[in-house]
Amino acid sequence: MNFFKKNNLFKIVFLIILIVIFLVPIIVLGINKDKNITNSKSLSLEEFTNTLNCSNYEKYLINDDLISLSCLENNRYINYMYSANDQTEVSFKDYLKKEEEFFKKIKELIYLKYPAFIADVLTKLDKTNIYLFKEDELIIYFYDYEITPLVNEDLFLKVNYMEIKDYLNIDFNINIDYLNEDGRAIDLNKKLIAFTFDDGPSKYTQDLVDVLNKNKAGATFFMVGKRLEEFAKAVKYVDKYSYEIAYHSWNHQNLTRQSLETIQAELLNSQEILNKLINKDFKLFRPPYGSINNNIKTSLEIPFILWNVDTEDWRNHDSEYLKNYVLDKAKDGDIILFHDMYKETVEAISKVLPELYAKGFQVVSVSDLAKAHEKEILPHKSYRSFPK
Predict the structure, then answer these.
(1) Domains delineated in the chain
(2) pLDDT tens by residue, 86-131
(3) How far is CA 376 from each of CA 185, 298, 363, rounded to the nearest angstrom?
(4) 198 among known catalytic residues
């Protein structure tokens, strides 16, 4: 009986030993697999940096464990990550815990920064992408992407760690005071021009807004007072997407042929309608046909905005012609006149905006153009352009 007990005990011990022998390596491999260490060879930081293909590199301390090293070679950034705890090279993908959500957020931020003709290509994320982690932000550099029209600028995205902290197993230094890169924000390094649209709102207004918004372009819509309530939905749509709304008379009459009393009454009536729709007032006035005189200027407490580039899209219903005309005429500080009345104008805007971006222009509203070029817009004055 004792023999059998001892024999069973021996079998149990032997079985436990076998389990330990087989399970321990599996557990260890599983841990390493979860962490997915890029290079299992242990190296000190100094030894690791000596292996880099960089003549000079910048070092960033992400946290107590992770160190990011980057260098610029042949006008391209190269990035490495080193784990002090594991004494080895790692990849940021080793720390992804919500991969799908991470890349969804990156694509969202790409579309916030870039016009669609660029963002549609970059969000494929199928070329060379360098993920450079710094102390308080991630910078993604995009290489080898074919953009049409050709864009002569570095393509990159800055991502605050607040945006991605939930998708990575990394303890980041969080900076809560930040702004995401927004393609609508004014870039003083670009040539600035204002697009303006007269005679609306109309059935094309929302299409224009969609095209502008898709291309990260600003604009000013000079609206006719008596059309505001008829196209109230369009007025609210323009305002929803932060486009400037300005005044273009009550019913498109030549102001110089009207009495001052009529002009003032119509402006007041239009102001009340706009205020009822979006709780805002007209700040700028474009006289129909550009017809204005000193008596009208001095009588109204509002600035008058004219233009220096007229596309005559009311005459030229050819989107290709309009595109080429703007590309030929546009220069820094211009105010360009279109009309919010024709589908060919919408088509022309869709065609010309990517070309202008590629040529280093940013399309903005009248007020943003004046502010960026440090020009004050004053009541009783008229303006045709805002050059630097």
Answers:
(1) 37-181 (no CATH), 191-383 (3.20.20.370)
(2) 999 999 999 999 999 999 999 999 999 999 999 999 999 999 999 9
(3) 20, 17, 19
(4) yes
